[in-house]
Design goal:
Two copies of one chain form a homodimer.
Chain A lengths: L18 H13 L5 E2 L11 H12 L12 H15 L8 E4 L1 H13 L5 E6 L3 H9 L3 E6 L10 H7 L4 E7 L11 H13 L3 E5 L22 E5 L12 E4 L2 H14 L5 H7 L5 H28 L12 E5 L7 H12 L1 E2 L1 E2 L11 E5 L4 H14 L4
Parallel strand pairs in A: 1-10, 3-4, 3-5, 5-6, 6-7
Antiparallel strand pairs in A: 2-8, 7-8, 9-12, 11-12
Helix pairs in contact in A: 1-11, 2-9, 4-5, 4-8, 10-12
Chain lengths: ~400, ~400
């Protein structure tokens, strides 16, 4: 008889999201009539901007529901290229842009085209957990490098020098980062690029939260040169989470392989989503996104000092995305337990650090400001009344 | 400097679709004003049924564009379960149904959860090419077994007995099959299931073309027991190609692992597509699908004897899907060259056998009856005038 013993070995390394236990309990409590404050969800409370919805409706009415080219419709690849030109002054050949089913699809394509079994990929700890799981999916090894608040939980040149081996193939960075909300500035990025380039490695930069940066000039790692790999998404800044649409910008030498794999593993990205996304670059849609960004900034500007006042330690600079990664060691050595307790006692749902890595994860909590400021204020008050005075 | 030499080894085994060369040339000719007959495309000319479109419009208007549970919205999983009950009299727990981004996503999840590197998967040759590419993606080995027209290009019990080794983990079958359009009847399926089960292997049945069977009773491999794995799709019978939505039915012991992986690699299937698909099981939508099926049957009933009259040999029984896999050895020992020539000289676009395997592929051609019967008639006339008399 077949049973769980027949599951592939790689699955042992692919953990569930621990926040799911929080979510399940939150749902139970809500069903019992409890008011739950969702500071655990990585999805803002904004709807998809109306111009994108309208374009989606139009696409369905026009019967745009058939297969498209595997790398996406040419008009969308051209629009993304134009976006880089207009926003960042970077010239990208549309051929180098591969539209994918979400940034998840992008990550999958990049890693399966580049990684051989046993290759090593350097990743900061904490990081988006799926990154290391995707690496493992293709029998390669994610190497988690402890990352510190003092360096914004980002990798440093010294880290790469220290952890690089002859098996290292790639370094994955994220700016802004999930779960930390921190960014890399152009100078830091350039130094990291140089050290990877000198070792003939691949630099992959996750720019999924690009556009949601509240301090400093916006930039893209693509400015560093055509050898840099970037993944991006329509989910966050563009507000299209459930549509599942993202993209890769790859060096020209890899495009043929990426296209070949996309044909085989996806056939194509969602057709209605692609046509809807054409409207994501219109001035009307952009105005909505920029307004949403200001709302997120206001939430961050409220929440960051409020959490510090509660006794959470935040020595990094959460300049982007919609996350604050806080040290809760003042309160606990078991942040998952504290998260469950806070949910139970205050109705505030949070994500424990262990969802993002292992390094000092038991004292970390991610706060997502994906809900309105009035709700954030109430949540902070509830936490304040429950937590011991700092 | 990085270059193509840095592409992962697995990519050498993942071939492009050779039909893409045909498609590219067809497009060129069309741009020059030539009338091209598309008998190469695996996508019928029917639009998505209007009730599904309406449900999609409603979903967008209701803001159903956010993340859903990783395995799909409960209502859709329940609808699929009910479909098995009503159509096939098979009871399936909705928990065992995992909604995926297309059947491509389904295949990926199943194989990554089950296959260890070097595991062997028995697959008929010819078969849908992505099957063996997906197996290779996870460092396992697809074992292509020559399949013959006399046994409908399906595997036999003797094949499995012969090719089974201690590395064999799984057998993949498809009914109806792409590219052959052939089916397995319940007796054949049961015998194949028994031989796999006796070896403690996994039986995975591709039922992507389920619903498009023009001879005999419809059935599902799920009738054989809860140990059988099935993948299915909203693309073909349900007419939702570009929406990218499919599903898995898995044994209960594997559901937790599948869900965990789905969370990590997909987050969720397309939300608008899921809400639209709820309408796929309504009587109005089903009536349209059944009418489309009758149209496809009429096309097959025309094309099959017509091709035989032209001199193509079809000794299998293409009872389903929308494909006829024909032996062209009367005309050529290089079917890809013949396909290019036919396109050039007659404007009829076809898919060469090498897109589906290696066994006798150089004398095989796939005809897709995804275009109207008048166009099929014209195409046959053009072929008749060009090809030597049989």
């Amino acid at each position: 008889m077949l049973n769980q013993a027949n599951i592939a070995a790689r699955m042992a390394a692919i953990q569930p999201f621990h926040v799911m236990a929080i979510l399940a309990r939150a749902r139970q409590l809500q069903e019992q009539g409890r008011d739950i404050f969702h500071l655990e969800v990585g999805e803002p409370d904004f709807p998809t901007p109306q111009p994108i919805i309208e374009a989606g409706l139009q696409a369905l009415q026009n019967g745009q529901t058939r297969y498209t080219p595997a790398c996406g419709i040419p008009a969308l690849r051209a629009s993304i290229a134009q976006y880089y030109q207009e926003r960042f002054g970077i010239k990208v050949d549309p051929k180098r842009i591969i539209v994918t089913p979400g940034a998840s699809g992008a990550l999958q394509l990049v890693l399966s085209v580049l990684l051989n079994p046993q290759d090593e990929v350097l990743i900061p700890d904490p990081a988006y957990p799926c990154n290391r799981h995707f690496v493992r999916l293709f029998e390669a090894n994610p190497i988690s490098i402890p990352a510190y608040a003092a360096t914004n939980y980002q990798l440093t040149v010294a880290d790469i020098e220290q952890y690089w081996t002859d098996k290292t193939k790639m370094v994955m960075l994220a700016t802004p980062s999930n779960p930390t909300g921190t960014t890399l500035n152009p100078t830091e990025l350039k130094a990291l690029h140089n050290v990877v380039k000198a070792r003939n490695g691949v630099l992959l930069v996750d720019e999924i939260y690009q556009g949601l940066v509240y301090e400093g000039e916006e930039h893209s790692a693509l400015a560093l040169g055509e050898d840099v790999w970037v993944i991006n998404s329509f989910s966050k800044y563009f507000g299209m989470t459930g549509w599942r649409l993202g993209w890769i910008v790859a060096p020209e030498w890899a495009v043929e392989a990426l296209e070949r794999l996309a044909q085989n593993v996806f056939l194509c990205p969602s057709t209605p989503a692609q046509y809807a996304a054409l409207a994501a670059f219109t001035p009307d849609a952009r105005a909505i996104m920029e307004a949403n960004k200001q709302i997120l900034k206001a939430r961050r500007d409220y929440l960051l000092p409020a959490l510090r006042e509660l006794g959470f330690v935040i020595n990094s600079q959460p300049a982007g995305a919609f996350y604050i990664y806080a040290d809760a060691s003042h309160f606990t050595q078991d942040a998952q337990e504290l998260c469950l307790q806070l949910l139970e006692q205050t109705g505030v749902a949070l994500t424990p650090g262990i969802d993002f890595g292992e390094f000092e994860a038991n004292t970390k909590i991610r706060f997502a400001y994906t809900t309105g400021i009035e709700r954030l204020e109430k949540a902070v008050t509830l936490l304040k009344n429950y937590l011991p005075r700092s």
